[in-house]
Design goal:
globular, 177 residues, 34% strand, single chain, four-stranded antiparallel beta sheet, Ribosomal protein S3 C-terminal domain, 4 helices, alpha+beta
Length: 177
């Protein structure tokens, strides 16, 4: 491969992955692996890269409580563990398998109890807003460090007709201001 080091190849491959269009991440993973001189080159960085892509894209997943929830950096409480405030759960998300693999009840240390009642009020309004304006949308509302963070994602995927799209927005309210 000339003067390009394996580390540079991994960086280039990961940049391709992080630039994958909505709904086509796994297809890009397959294509990038096929382009590499050794498929195993990105195995070490894959968990980190998949996590970054999923949290930046705010992927929508099914909560065990029957609603959709977002996997975001705002809701991450530990590596692979994400808040589902509406469901009162912490979900374990496997970034490689792209699925929720477990859950547990939210504990007091997972939430900012000083803004929980305000967060719940924002959540009610955010769910109504999302339902009205984004028919395929999902919202998750977090209370963290004295702030309310509203995340909204709406996605439609139709790769067979050559179109995919995702809307993402994050709104922050500083409680007490």
């Amino acid at each position: 491969m000339g003067d390009v080091t394996e580390d540079e190849i991994v960086d280039i491959a990961n940049n391709f992955l992080l630039s994958a269009p909505p709904g086509e991440f796994m297809e890009v993973v397959t294509d990038v692996r096929a382009l590499l001189p050794k498929e195993s080159l990105i195995n070490e960085s894959a968990p980190r890269t998949f996590r970054e892509y999923n949290t930046e894209q705010m992927v929508q997943v099914d909560s065990p409580k029957g609603h959709k929830v977002l996997i975001t950096k705002y809701g991450e409480v530990a590596d692979g563990d994400y808040l589902d405030p509406k469901g009162g759960l912490v979900l374990h998300y496997d970034h490689i398998k792209q699925e929720v693999t477990g859950s547990r009840a939210i504990s007091g240390s997972d939430l900012d109890s000083s803004v929980e009642s305000l967060r719940a009020a924002f959540e009610k309004e955010a769910f109504a807003y999302t339902a009205e304006h984004y028919p395929h949308g999902t919202t998750t509302v977090y209370g963290k460090d004295g702030k309310i963070i509203i995340c909204i994602t709406s996605a439609r995927f139709n790769p067979h007709n050559f179109w995919n799209g995702r809307w993402r927005s994050v709104w922050t309210y500083h409680a007490g201001n």
